[in-house]
Write a structure and sequence with these properties.
With 493 residues, the chain is an alpha/beta fold. It is built from 14 helices and 14 strands. The structure holds adenosine-5'-triphosphate and magnesium ion.
Length: 493
Amino acid sequence: MSTVLGLARVGGRALGGALAYLVAWRAFSVPALAAVFVLVFSGPLFGLPGWLLVAVLGLVAVLAHADHGRGFSLDALVHNVGESMERTRRRHAATRLRRRWPAACRELGWDTAEGDPPPSSTGRSRESRRQRPRSPGLRHVEHLGDTLRIAWRPRGDTNPKQWREHAEALRRHLGGHSVRFAEDPREPGTILATIGLRALPVHDNAPGPVDGQAAAPTLASEPLAVHQAPTLAVELGQRAGGGVAVWRPSEVNGLLVVGATGGGKGGCLRYLASQCLAAGAVVHVIDPKGTGEHAWVTDHGGHLHRGLERQVEVLRVLADELRARCADLAALGAEKIGDLPPRLRPQPVVCVVDEAADLLTLRRVGTEKAADELRAEAGSLLTLLAQQGRAAWIHPVVALQRPDVQALGPAGGALRAQLVARVVAGSIDDDGCDQALGVGHREQLVHLTGHPGRALVARLAHADGAQPYPVQVRWLPVDALRPVGVRPAELVA
Ligand SMILES: Nc1ncnc2c1ncn2[C@@H]1O[C@H](COP(=O)(O)OP(=O)(O)OP(=O)(O)O)[C@@H](O)[C@H]1O
Ligand SMILES: [Mg+2]
């Protein structure tokens, strides 16, 4: 008996699945059913004319698919059929999720039956309510390429603070790699989540210079036409779930890059600085460590600064430039450089500070008194750039291992708060995670899998929101940035 019931259940499910697929495949199934209908009813009645009618309808259906607006072609037929199959796949995936929804809610513990039901005010017994578990209402499901958009209404007793947990739990349940969520603006109380289904690669080479010598150095002597001054959009790498993580300095001015030693901060800064230079920005690199790591910058028209006094002097010059640009904006009645006509825009400036703790942390010993004054000044100048640089297109990038306020000098708190865009490269401890990404994101540390270049990033652009997401930072080896014809062996010889 139980075998028969089991077989009936499996058969029912298979039939349900097949029917759902036929409904999703409506571009084929509706004309096919119509043809069967005509054949069954009009074929025997009208004989040959009935068959002819079916053939003509079939031909019209094929031609409708082969039309590309200015005639018919086989390519258009193949393209349109491919598109229609893709639409079918998406519809079917959405239907499958709708059917799985009650089971998913049960497994995630979201059914009302799981907790205590609210006290009955309708006269129905608590027992009868408990017997009929109710899932959170599914409002919308859409499957678009590598993303799944789902809107659902959580149970009334769900605290909105738990929404992030719910969105994460659903992502894991559905095997997604990233999730973004927000309250549906048209229906308050409904969560609208976008789940990315594409996994991150474990390594991702940067394009261009790596493939041969495509990106030869941009020489400093080549003047950049002023009207070419671009709005910077700096790519970091692929983001989990699909898409590319892009830092937009004109939206989110300062960038803070943190992570334990060897995590890939330097690699991230190199890829970022190389793009800024290629886009025509002025790049200053302040490198207190003083190794040859950033020496390539000068070959590409950037500026590398060593020695505390010189580094502070550069920050003073940038602060003066900032004030001058703000005064120009005031005279022109513009709020930010992006509002000026392109021919009046100055070049964007990016100031990269690697190992910022070396530059900014006060030593507080007698012998370092004078140097400490310079360090404190560097901190307040960087804070000024971070606070006001967005409108004037002067963008600081600060890298250090752990973003403790003390490590960033006397103005550390203000500086960290103003460096709004965040990258955690490689690994970091729980406290460092709170400092870098804000409280409540420690569970995201599981995404730092230890693959070189794996990072968690947050707020790189307005569209990002505060929710951190994993990224595989593109790898640009320093060899690819040496001037054409120069090989490391020749440098040593
Ligand atoms: N995006 C990346 N993709 C692949 N490998 C990477 C990437 N970034 C870094 N690595 C690897 O990790 C090594 C260490 O990286 P990097 O020097 O950038 O670390 P770091 O965070 O700057 O360390 P430190 O704090 O010691 O300066 C690199 O030599 C490289 O082999
Ligand atoms: Mg480094």
